[in-house]
Amino acid sequence: MNLHEFQAKDILARYGLMSPGGAVAITPEEAEAVARRLGSPMIAVKAQVHAGGRGKAGGVRLVTSPHAAREAAAEMLGRKLVTAQTGPEGRIVRRVFVETGLASARDLNLAVLVDRTLGELVVLGSPEGGEDLEERALKGELKLERLPLGTGATPRHDEALAFAARLGLTGAEGAALAGIVDGLRRAFVELDASLIEINPLALTEDGRLVAFDAKMVIDDNALFRQPELAALRDDEEADPIEVQAQHHQLNYVRLDGDIGLVVNGAGLGLATLDLLREAQGRPANFMDIRTTAKSQHIAYGFGLLFDNPAVKAILVNIHGGGMQPCDTVVEGLGMAARRSGRTIPIVARLAGNNADFARSRFVNFGLPIVECPDMWTAATRAVAIARHGR
Amino acid sequence: MAILVDADTRVLCQGMTGWAGTHHTALMMDYGTCVVAGVTPGKGGRHHLNVPVFDRVAPAVAATGANASMIFVPPAHAAAAMIEAIEAGIGLVVAVTERVPVMDMVRVRAALKGSRTRLVGPNSQGILAPGLAKIGVMGTGAERPGSVGIVSRSASLTTEVVDQITRAGLGQSTTVGVGGDPIHGIGMAECLDLFFADPDTEAVVLIGELGGTEEQEAAEFLQSTGLKKPVIAYLAGRHAPPERRMGHAGTITLHGRGDVVAKTAALRAAGVTVVSGAHRVGETVRQVLGAAAR
User: Fold this and answer.
1) Which chain B residue shows the shortest CA-CA distance from A287?
2) Where are the domains of chain B?
């Protein structure tokens, strides 16, 4: 679960991370009032959306008066912001964060995350900030310094100071960085984060380390024991259909094509999506039926496809396994088709547990099914039907 | 034979008395797996599915000689169950539980260090050695005892590939699901190592997907040891949109990292036959094994 910048800064302040200070505004008038209250000669107005790359996309503006803050907010609020990470549909900006603008003498970058290979916490840092650090590091243009943290214990002071020195900070500045690292570490462990990134962490002219931006992601699997953080979820940022699908034990991702896709299992779903694309087809969605889904959940999922006017064909690829036999899926499909009343050609590939029983249920539901013996045949048939109607 | 399990494997089930635990343990017993005990705190002293139930793992091991554990415990307590099994010195722990918090898995990984336990999962369908044992929740019926080992990040694709391999006239030595989560126990490289050492495995199928770098680590392992047996790989998610979670928590690509193109290149460089379509795995294994026999 992503937090907004203003939420992350507010939370991390409790762990000793300094930021320039500001407040959220949902109208241009509020933005002006906040700017006036801050009383700073420079003000940053920042769109609050769950996507990086805001700076390059015009989602961060530096202004020099409360009036200009109001104008900047008016240009952002209610509009779509399209960044490199939002996809072409962009995100509607519903809030701006109005913050004191400070000058940076030097930008650094700091992140806490779990190293998947080692299964341990690690702090990554670089003596530079910027939006494309990861790509540059991958290309070998930038070296990311590492400070391993194991299961999240306080790092040894000399190791933390050595890490700071590798980022070019020594003396009081090095000690300050070590303090920040320890605070972020504690926040990560206590709050079940899966990523905390401070980029940039600015060294100001007067020698303070201040978070100009902050990104924080909370582990969805741990929200059951983080109720305060769970309450910060901004469902407006997520696709409402995807949120509802989650409540129905379905992993659903909206895509922009004309073939509805339903598969039981994430890996098989990805494989089927790949085959559809290889067959020059355009999937309307990715849908993985979780093993916990019952037929009424599955009916909800098929309902999403029947309700999508762009869908011209439905491809069902089910390999009945130990947790979910084929007939459960067909029952869900039959329920959805009866509710909808819309007739969409269905290409099905059924294998494994209860496949024969599922076939008989197709007949009972009177559904227009084209059954195919394997995934590739099914994918190519679905593409032909979506394109030519047969 | 098989990897990870053999005729002497004696399984205890943590969380056996719940609905899922009961259902799947009964199916495992039907398959012929030797299940010797259940562990559910507070229910010790009873019998369930005709085996004794214990409050804790260590006394269950002492009383029954269990040497493997199957974990059906819900996410909030799954890590504690894994650590209890590790501390009891159980050699093989299979965790089926989905949605275990990441920080909990960091603690489990620390407990694994220096222990004698191999952890499979979490979020794994388990281990299936056809005709010998099933420690997991996968469906059965399509598998046949045979010479192809399977190591996979996806339960559904394992089911699919098992079926294809059987229809190609071959069978499986063992299938292992390493799990769909970013932080898990045994990895693909370690499974390859075990399959290479197993005299009854002639070829290995590796089923990967986008996200993470586990396939690249398997490729590095193969580069260092050499390709001791043919390895055939299928990688799902070539056309998935980036930066989206596609079903499994481990399937997010960030800035090109963990994408299928990079994984494919790394595996091909290590001599692996990478199949581009999921429907062609069984047929490709048969061709590769046929070519190896000539």
Assistant:
1) B247
2) 1-123, 141-293
d(CA A223, CA A232) in angstroms, rounded, equals 11
- Please list, residue by residue across A141-169, b when 16 or more beta carbons sit within 10 angstroms of its beta carbon and e when fewer do: ebebbebebeebeebeeeebbebbeebeb
- What's the average model confidence in pLDDT over A31-52? 95
The domain B141-293 belongs to what CATH superfamily? Succinyl-CoA synthetase domains (3.40.50.261)
Contact: B213, A116; criterion CB under 8 Å? yes
Can you give the pLDDT at residue A140? Answer: 75
- Nearest chain A residue to B105 by CA distance is A119
Answer yes or no: B47 catalytic: no
Please give the order of strands across the beta sheet that includes A43-47. A22-25, A96-100, A43-47, A60-63
Please tell me which residue in B77, B248, B255, B279 is annotated as part of the active site.
B248
Which H or E run includes B193? helix B188-197
Q: What is the sign, positive or negative, of the torsion defined by CA atoms of A344, A349, A354, A357?
A: positive
Nearest CA of chain A to the CA of B19: how many Å?
13
CATH for B1-123 (3.40.50.720, 1.20.1250.20, 3.40.50.2300, 3.30.9.10): 3.40.50.720
Give this complex's ipTM: 0.93
Partner residue opposite A255 with nearest CB, options B141, B236, B241: B241
> Which sign, positive or negative, has the C-alpha torsion A161, A162, A164, A165?
positive
Q: Is A31 helix (H, G, I), strand (E, B) or coil?
A: helix
The pLDDT assigned to A182 comes to 97
B17 touches chain A (CB under 8 A): no
pLDDT single digits (tens) B227-262: 999 999 999 999 987 766 666 666 555 545 578 999
User: Structurally, what CATH architecture does the domain formed by A1-19+104-238 represent?
Assistant: 2-Layer Sandwich (3.30)
